[in-house]
Amino acid sequence: MLKFTGTYYEFGEYIGRQLIENNHDFAVDMNDNIMRRQLKVYQKYYPEMLEQAKGIAHVTRLPEKQVIYNEIATHLEARKRRLAAKKGCTIFAVRQGRQVFIGRNYDWMPRVRMIFEKCDVNLAGKYRYFAFSDQSTWPGHLGHKTWEYATEDAINQHGLYIGLTFSHIDRWAYGVDSLHILRYIAEHCRTTKEALTAFRKIPVNCAQNFLIADKTGDMTIVQHYAHGFEVVRPDQRGVLILTNHALTPKIQKLDKVRQDNPVHDTYVRYAEAEQLITCQLKGINNNTEFQFTDIWPILRRSHYVYNEETIWSLALELSSGRYNLYYDTAMGQEQEKFGF
C-alpha cells in the first residue's frame, strides 16, 4: 500500500518520482483556452492541486504549465473529444439499524489487476483517507508507461465513503475534474451533508455518478451531468444501488448508454444486486438482517456484479470502521483488511 504524509507540494514530488520511474507520457499539445478556463476554476476552488502540480514539475524538470495542463485539463479535453474510457462498476449501500454497509466492484481492463494502487494519504491540514486507483490507465497505455494518481474510491478518517461509476451522459463544462472532486470531498468533508454542499459549490467538468455515505447512515447518489446534478436517496428499506445508467427521469433523456452499447450490462448488474440484497434482507439465506458477511457473496459470487473485468472489491461497514479489500491474482483471490 502506498503511504504518504506531507504537503501537496511534497506529494507532487513523490508522484513525480513515480512518473519518472514509469516513463509517464505527459501531454505535449495544449489548448490555451481550456488551460485558461480550467486554471481559473482551480485557483478558486482547489488551488492545492496546483501546488501538487508544481511539485511534479520540480522533480520531472518539465515546464510547470505543461504539468498543470496534464493535471487539470487533459481529462476534460478527452471528454470534449468523446474519448473517455467507458468503464462498468457497481456500488451499493445498505443501512440496517445503526450499521452502514458498502459493497463496491471496480470494473476495468483485466490487466489493470497487476498495477492498481492502494493508497493511505495524509496531507497536511486535511483529513486522512484510504484511496484506490487504477493509475489512470486507458486502453492505449496500460499503466506500465504511466503513473497518475487518480482516486476512484476513498474512505476518510471520519467514516465518509465516496466512490464513482462511469456516466454515459456526454455533457461537459469547465470545472474541477470528477476524479479531483472525489478526492476533494475525502480531504475536506466529514459527512454526506458536507459532501453535498461541496457539490453545490464547486463546478464539475464532466458527467459522473457518485455514491456517498457516512457512518451515521446518511447516504445518497449524486448523478452529475456537468451542468448540475440529481440526488437519489435510499428506498424505504435503506438501500441504494448504483451502476452506470441514469436513475431519474430528468437525466434519463440525456443518457446515451444504449447508444454507446445496446447490450450494456449496467441494467443486469443493477437487477442482480437488487435481487441479492433483497434475498439477504428477507432472510432467505437464514439471516434475520443484513450483515457484513453478506457483502462478499454479492461482490464475488455473483454472475454479473462480479465479472472478468472486476479489478477490486470493497466491503465496508462505516459505523464500526470495518474495511476489507478483495482482488484477484494469479494465485487466486487476495483479501486485505485495513483501517485507521
TrEMBL record:
InterPro entries, alphabetized: C45_proenzyme-like, Ntn_hydrolases_N, Peptidase_C45, Peptidase_C45_hydrolase
The chain positions of domain Peptidase C45 hydrolase read: 96-327
Instruction: Please report a single Pfam family linked to this protein.
Output: AAT
PANTHER family cross-referenced by the UniProt entry: BETA-ALANYL-DOPAMINE_CARCININE HYDROLASE (PTHR34180:SF1), PEPTIDASE C45 (PTHR34180)
Classification via NCBIfam families: C45_proenzyme (NF040521)
| Full protein name | Peptidase C45 hydrolase domain-containing protein
**Naturally occurring in which organism (per UniProt):** Candidatus Nanosyncoccus alces
